[in-house]
Design a protein that fits this description.
- This protein is flat.
- The longest helix is centred in the C-terminal third of the chain and has 13 residues.
- The chain is an all-alpha fold and about 80 residues long.
- The chain has a domain of about 55 residues.
- The chain is built from one helix and no strands.
Length: about 80
């Protein structure tokens, strides 16, 4: 990536364009279209026709007990439990 000829880039993230990343919440796959020879890395089986699904709510990766605590707290605060 070259910054040559680019305008100044703000260090304030609110000034920047939205950016997205793969969060692994869920995938929707059509198994009849699996093609492991031509897809994009690192998951070639997804093929080349990949569309995003934007999650607007806060999400959590749960890897340890502290993450479980924060997830439970969020569920209670947002009344997402029985």
């Amino acid at each position: 990536f070259s910054f040559k000829g680019k305008r100044e880039i703000s260090t304030n993230r609110q000034d920047l364009e939205p950016s997205y990343f793969l969060c692994h919440n869920f995938w929707v796959l059509r198994t009849s279209n699996f093609d492991t020879s031509t897809g994009q890395l690192p998951w070639k089986f997804m093929g080349n026709n990949i569309k995003p699904y934007i999650i607007r709510e806060k999400t959590f990766d749960v890897h340890d007990w502290e993450d479980v605590y924060h997830s439970e707290k969020w569920l209670k605060e947002n009344k997402k439990h029985d």
